[in-house]
């Protein structure tokens, strides 16, 4: 059982030939409305990967919240607790995707910032008998800490995807079994501009294992002095939106099944790669059959850690 606590958004994605420079206006090709939010993305990704998933989130009492509720009801999650805030708008993300599949994202959190520690305590039964907790940073840090505290109290394996990255208190690191930043997030958390040094700094932060995702260079799993490179899978990418969420959801699924971290990270790398082959976030989350097929037969990019 995987329990995910986090954000739910409506995404507006515009495609452009290239990402704009500062102060520049570009003409786009199309705009698509879809479902997003790192919490909801990762919950759907874990379910598609084969996990039994519970999800806790908060939306506004508005039409966007209604759309998210209807959507999540059809995503195969074992239980969804979608709280409503009458005073806040449902979260929204605005995404630009260029011809190479790279993106720029602005998130307006709205109701996601109203998900409180008290909300988590009130629904603690979601966590108490699960195996893995997966949480991100699009909700208040105090709420993240309460999720981690309850999860450790009940003996869960905890995964924190520190996105968007911000400074974390030392006690937060100590409650995290697996920290999953990308290279930029790792640098922010470690207080360095050198990705090669960031993982080493984070290993000493108190978190059990650091998994740094590196895009086309795969991922790096660091446990103390033991460092393992997980090569990326070669696919034809058209949109990287949600790739990190696919990685985290599949990682949580693999760990809930009892996989070793390296095996789960390989499965996660395959899920992340597959998610780049379609536009959007949740619509692109791959099935377990697709993930397993890519793991068995997919070509890999064998890159060094340098």
Written account of the structure:
The chain is globular, with a radius of gyration of 18 Å. It has helices at residues 38-48, 63-72, 117-122, 125-128, 141-153, 170-174, 183-190, 195-203, 243-256, 261-275, 288-297, and strands at residues 2-5, 9-15, 30-36, 53-60, 79-85, 91-97, 103-108, 132-136, 157-161, 178-179, 209-213, 219-223, 226-230, 232-233, 300-301. It is built from eleven helices and 15 strands. α7 (183-190) packs across α8 (195-203) and α9 (243-256) packs antiparallel against α10. β8, α5 and β9 (157-161) form a beta-alpha-beta unit. The longest helix has 15 residues, at 261-275. The protein is an alpha/beta fold and 306 residues long. 34% of the residues lie in helices and 25% in strands. Strands 5-4-1-8-9-10-11-12-13 form a nine-stranded mixed beta sheet, with helices on both faces. It starts with a strand and ends in a 5-residue tail after the last strand. The protein has one domain: UDP-N-acetylmuramoyl-L-alanine:D-glutamate ligase.
């Amino acid at each position: 059982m995987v329990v995910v606590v986090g954000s739910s958004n409506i995404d507006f994605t515009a495609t452009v030939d290239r990402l704009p420079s500062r102060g520049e206006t570009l003409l786009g090709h199309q705009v698509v409305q879809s479902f997003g939010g790192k919490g909801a993305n990762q919950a759907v990704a874990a379910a598609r990967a084969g996990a039994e998933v519970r999800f806790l989130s908060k939306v506004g009492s508005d039409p966007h919240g209604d759309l998210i509720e209807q959507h999540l009801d059809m995503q195969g999650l074992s239980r969804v607790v979608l709280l409503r805030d009458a005073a806040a708008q449902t979260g929204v993300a605005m995404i630009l995707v260029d011809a190479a599949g790279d993106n720029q994202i602005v998130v307006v959190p709205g109701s996601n910032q109203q998900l409180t520690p008290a909300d988590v305590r009130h629904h603690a039964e979601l966590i108490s008998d699960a195996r893995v907790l997966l949480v991100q940073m699009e909700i208040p840090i105090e709420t993240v800490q309460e999720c981690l505290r309850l999860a450790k109290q009940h003996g869960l394996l905890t995964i924190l995807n520190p996105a968007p990255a911000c400074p974390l208190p030392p006690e937060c690191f100590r409650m995290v079994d697996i920290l999953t930043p990308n290279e930029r997030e790792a640098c922010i958390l470690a207080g360095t501009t050198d990705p090669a040094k960031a993982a080493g700094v984070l290993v000493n932060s108190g978190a059990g294992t650091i998994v740094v995702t590196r895009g086309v260079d795969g991922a790096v799993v660091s446990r103390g002095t033991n460092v393992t490179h997980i090569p990326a899978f070669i696919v034809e990418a058209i949109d990287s939106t949600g790739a990190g969420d696919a990685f985290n959801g599949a990682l949580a699924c693999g760990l809930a099944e009892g996989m070793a971290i390296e095996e789960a990270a390989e499965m996660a790398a395959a899920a992340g790669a597959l998610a780049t082959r379609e536009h959007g976030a949740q619509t692109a989350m791959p099935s377990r059959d697709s993930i397993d097929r890519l793991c068995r037969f997919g070509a890999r990019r064998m890159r060094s850690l340098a």
